[in-house]
Structures are given as C-alpha cells and as structure tokens.
Automatic annotation (TrEMBL):
Residues 131-262 form the N-acetyltransferase domain. This is N-acetyltransferase. GO terms for molecular function: acyltransferase activity, transferring groups other than amino-acyl groups. InterPro entries: Acyl_CoA_acyltransferase, GNAT_dom. Keywords: Transferase. It holds the Pfam family Acetyltransf_1. It comes from the Bacteria. The keyword Transferase applies.
Length: 262
C-alpha cells in the first residue's frame, strides 16, 4: 500500500469532498472549512479546515459561533498532519475538550478474511429495523456500561435514521450469544469514493478475546468488497488497534476529537 497516496485519497475523498448524508445533516463549505450540521442525533463537526497560523483563531471562533447559534455540541476532528502545527493548543484555548486519541487505519477490503470465523455459541444477525437497532443499543450498553446510556440512545437514533433514509449506505450487524446481544457493529459507505468506514464493535467483557470483533470485521469486509469498495477505514481505539494490526490494517495517521459544548 502506498501510504502517501492512500492518505491523500482519504483526505480528499472523505474530508475535503465530504457530502451530505441522507435528508438530515448538511455538509457545507465556508471559506476553507468543510463542516456538517444536523440534528442533535446527527454527528456535528468540522471535517477539514484549510487554515494557517494567521487565520486559525478567527476560523475557530466562527465555527464556535455557527454551532452555538444552532444549539449544537460539535467536534473538530483534528488529524495528526493537520496544520497549523499548534492547532490542538488553539482549540483547547478556545474552550474545546479533547477526547481520547484514535488511530486511523486502512486495509484493502479484498485482502481481509473472506468469511467470519465465529466462536461457538455466537451468530451474526443483520440489523435492518428498529428491533435490530435496539439489540445494537443493548450490546453497546453491555460493552461500555450504563454510564454510556446517553451515547447509546444517540447512536440508536442515528443508525435507525440511516437505515430508514439511506439503507444502501449502511450495513449493521449484531453478534448474539443465544438471545443476548454481545457486540454491535456497522459499516458506512461513502458513494463515489474508495472507502467504507467501520464503526462500533465494542464487545461485552464476558465475551472478549474470543474473536467476535474480528468476525464482524470479516463480515463487513466481504460486503464492502462485493460492492466494489477498495479500502476499509477505521478510527481505532487502543483496544481494537492490535486486532486490526494482525488482520493487516495499516496506520495512516492519528485523529483526536476536540469537542465544544455551547
């Protein structure tokens, strides 16, 4: 894999040329900024900013005004190669709070396992409706605890909206141990690009270390390859990064969400 070429394609296709999702959130370009604004259940934030040391502070302030006027919490998705070099410090000074850093990893879809290898007692169930979304939300709570209940509810609303409005742009799956949901994962397609994004995959602690997350990656990789997507992209946590390394994913860069609450 040509690291520089894939990183350039990722920046151009996923960030600079991002398009609106469904009928809700709107992607707009204001000056050198690409940002998305939607409802409270949508992702709101800055995807790309063509700025330098002389313009950064004014651009940051304009984004704060925009989302504050809309009554939205938002995220500035900062990547390790973004400029200016001190952008992280400028965001903190403006009142943003940094979430944990993630690693942007990419693999060629066709190079990944062709079929999931499921541990005994586990089956993968496609998520296509509100019942399946509820199972995904239960799996999320099992993985991350009741303290994440608000995020689980927010995620469920977003996934259900995607399944309803743009069903061809999302694939979701839940891993079931009998009647208990133990892992939920999804894949979001970016039509017109080379990339499909893998999201979720948190697993009930009682079922970790058995290959369930790996199986959901293989399940989604097969579908992405069948639909003609060249790359799978993941914003990997420290927990999932070693698994993805072993599957053949390569690191493109790191990304840190800087969150602003009006």
């Amino acid at each position: 894999m040509d690291h520089a070429a894939v990183l350039a394609a990722y920046d151009r296709q996923i960030r600079q040329d991002a398009r609106s999702e469904g009928h809700g959130p709107a992607v707009e370009r204001v000056g050198g900024v690409v940002r998305q604004t939607g409802s409270e259940s949508d992702w709101n934030g800055v995807l790309w900013a063509d700025i330098d040391a002389t313009t950064a502070d004014a651009v940051i302030a304009e984004q704060v005004r925009h989302y504050t006027d809309a009554g939205r919490e938002f995220e500035w998705k900062l990547h390790s190669h973004d400029r200016p070099a001190d952008l992280a410090g400028r965001l903190l000074a403006a009142g943003f709070v940094a979430d944990p850093q993630e690693t942007v990893m990419v693999a060629q879809a066709e190079s990944l396992p062709a079929a999931p290898e499921l541990p005994e007692g586990i089956r993968l169930v496609p998520v296509t409706d509100a019942v399946g979304v509820d199972l995904m939300a239960q799996a999320h709570l099992a993985a991350f605890g009741e303290g994440d209940a608000a995020l689980s509810e927010h995620l469920a609303k977003r996934v259900l909206a995607q399944l309803t409005e743009t069903p061809d742009e999302i694939v979701a799956v839940v891993a079931m141990a009998g009647e208990r949901p133990v892992c939920g994962a999804r894949m979001e397609f970016c039509p017109g690009t080379d990339f499909a994004g893998l999201w979720g995959g948190g697993t009930d602690p009682r079922w970790r270390g058995k290959g369930i997350y790996r199986a959901t990656v293989a399940y989604r990789a097969r579908i992405a390859a069948e639909r003609g997507y060249r790359y799978l992209q993941v914003d990997a946590s420290d927990d999932s990064r070693p698994i993805l390394d072993r599957l053949g994913f390569s690191t493109l860069c790191t990304t840190t969400p800087y969150v602003y609450q009006p």
